[in-house]
Design goal:
CATH topology of the largest domain: inorganic pyrophosphatase (n-terminal core)
Strand order of the largest sheet: 3-2-1-4-5-6
Number of strands: 12
Low-confidence stretches: none
Oligomer: single chain
Number of domains: 2
Strand content: 15-25%
Distance between the termini: 36 Å
Structural class: alpha/beta
CATH class of the largest domain: Alpha Beta
Length: 340
């Protein structure tokens, strides 16, 4: 953060306040980690805080410290709305538009609180008194660390905060292998380990806790994978029937798309997942190098995200969505084939 942003934050947080901290719909490790870590810090400074997320998060994140204190909006709507209404400050973390909070959008639009945004996605909305936005950052958890640093509070990072920030950085950087991982990221990680984060336990909790059903679903996904070498592209499909047959739970498909991207020579990867309840196809897009899946998602799939990682959706059925996806590839062929 720069000096002007720091001054605004210090002014807002100078005296104890009622603070609501909000994460995005379908919370991931970065959302849970950043909101919980910031909440724990602000509580230690005398503020009254509550983390609220639009809907529940995957079981493999529920070991994280203070995750049990997160209020799930769609389970406690009345209580959550009252907290939002009464808040002096609302911090929005890991998203930059109210469209990313689902059914919470109206409550946030009507709130009279001062907003603080901490986020690393592109094209932030203009709703916050303090907007700390940096698309070069690999995770919001890394930004929360820098926020704490700018506020002169690094010595107040507890083991629980360190654990949660480490988790968010690790998951959003693909275990530190994405291009967004910098030397500064590793210095932050060292600071978090010094503060008590036990790296091997965190990795085990996230990556070594698969159910048999999840691994069977991964097998189905890999069997369904198709490779289009003429476009350096690979994609995976999962139908609702396949999800149901393998007792799908929220979070089970996390990381599946990376298997397609790991194939030698592949630059662009996608996974398409049928959600009959919402009557949509949800998708995750990944890329390497200069190819922007953020632009592809914004242009064609009502979504967006980062340069090399984005999400989207389609209102077509699964077959039609794949047909449309393949039909747009020729316009990106030169970009894709430009990669060595």
């Amino acid at each position: 953060m720069n000096k002007a942003q720091t001054a605004i934050a210090q002014s807002l947080l100078e005296t104890p306040k009622k603070i609501v901290i909000v994460g995005h719909k379908n919370p991931d490790g970065d959302a849970v980690g950043s909101t919980s870590a910031l909440s724990l810090l602000l509580k230690s400074q005398g503020h009254d805080t509550q983390v609220i997320v639009p809907n529940d998060f995957p079981d493999f994140l529920k070991w994280m410290p203070a995750s049990e204190d997160i209020l799930i909006y769609n389970q406690k709507v009345e209580r959550a709305n009252q907290l939002i209404k009464d808040a002096d400050i609302i911090c929005t973390l890991d998203f930059n538009s109210f469209t990313r909070v689902g059914s919470m959008e109206d409550a946030l639009n009507q709130a009279t609180a001062d907003y603080i945004m901490i986020d690393h996605h592109e094209s932030p909305s203009d709703y916050a008194v303090l907007t700390y936005s940096d698309t070069a950052m690999g995770s919001t958890c890394e930004m929360v660390y820098h926020f704490i640093e700018a506020m002169g509070q690094l010595e107040h990072i507890s083991e629980a905060m360190a654990t949660n920030m480490y988790t968010g950085i690790m998951t959003d950087t693909g275990s530190f292998r994405f291009a967004s991982t910098t030397a500064t990221t590793h210095r932050v990680i060292a600071g978090l380990m010094d503060a008590g984060a036990v790296h091997h336990e965190i990795h085990e909790n996230i990556y070594d806790s698969s159910s048999p059903e999840r691994l069977k679903l991964l097998g189905v996904a890999l069997k369904n994978m198709r490779i289009l070498p003429e476009y350096k592209t690979a994609y995976i499909t999962l139908s609702q029937k396949e999800l149901d047959e393998n007792q799908f739970k929220k979070g089970d498909t996390e990381g599946f798309v990376n298997y397609a991207l790991s194939i030698k020579g592949i630059i662009f990867a996608a996974i398409f997942i049928e959600h009959k309840k919402d009557n949509i196809i949800k998708m995750s897009l990944r890329s390497k190098g200069d190819f922007s899946v953020n632009l592809v998602s914004r242009e064609h799939f009502h979504g967006g995200g980062h340069h090399n990682a984005a999400g989207g959706k389609s209102d077509l059925n699964l077959t039609e969505t794949i047909r449309y996806f393949i039909s747009i590839l020729p316009r990106y062929k030169d970009q894709l084939l430009a990669h060595a």
